[in-house]
Amino acid sequence: MNWVHSSVAVSEKLYSQVTSSSWKKYVTFLGSTDKPTQTVLHSVESDAANQMTHLSANKEYLACIDYVNKTLMVFSSTNDTHKFTIPLTDLQRPYGVHLTTDAVLVTDHQEGKLYKYALSPSSVRMWVCSDLPGASGIDRDESGFIYVTSITSPNIYIISPEGKKIGELTHEKIKESVDNKAWIHDIAVRNGKMVLACGDTGVMLFKIK
User: Fold this and answer.
1) 105-134: buried (b, 16+ CB within 10 Å) or exposed (e) per residue?
2) Which of the following CATH numbers is that of domain 2-207: 3.40.1620.10, 3.60.40.10, 2.120.10.30, 2.130.10.120?
3) Cα(185)–Cα(187) distance, rounded to whole angstroms?
4) Alpha-carbon distances, residue 105 vs 9, 49, 148, 151 (angstroms)
5) HEC per residue, 91-157
6) Are 10 and 36 in contact (CB under 8 A)?
7) For the chain, which end, N or C, has fewer CB atoms within 10 Å of the first or last residue's CB respectively?
8) pLDDT (tens digit, 9 = 90+) per residue, 42-58?
9) What pLDDT, on a 0 to 100 scale, did the predictor assign at position 159?
């Protein structure tokens, strides 16, 4: 994995959020890691009892993690209507989320696990992948392999589409970031490139070889 210096690196997985009274507004960047094409503003109703961390969107749904109440709230991506909620009570600290067309991936960074649920009100658990210390952000590549970041180690975990851990990636730049307590919160993987959201230090861009 090669480090590529970049002053600006935007991906569809990296987002900003603005809290305004009882609403949280999320801006999701759509497009490639090189050429973002547009931004879409989602407004999600919230209150003091809700603490949203990550979100993920596809053409049909927008999903937000509420780590305090241990729920995954699923909304329409076109009109922000609440569709259903998936309980995450079996997780110690739900954190990252990633939507596919028919499923949702959720990390538990306290237990170091990745869960896959059916994207439906039934919320059937499909599999669990363990041994992922500090598991945080999630993305998939074009072949369906899953990449999970860690907020306690400099490792990027690689998981097969079937939910088996098959390897790890790291880099000196990631180690420096973690040593300086700039935890890796989220990830985007597209076209052989990886973008990492690194807390207060911004983003890092890599080429995967």
Assistant:
1) bbbbbbbbbbbbbebeeebeeeeebeebbb
2) 2.120.10.30
3) 7
4) 24, 24, 10, 17
5) CCCEEEEEECCCEEEEEECCCCEEEEEECCCCCCEEEEECCCCCEEEEEECCCCCEEEEECCCCCEE
6) yes
7) C
8) 444 545 455 666 778 88
9) 98
- Write out the two tokens for 96: 């990252």
User: pTM above 0.85?
Assistant: no
Secondary structure of residue 167 in the 3-state scheme: strand
Two tokens at 190? 């597209």
Amino acid present at 189? V
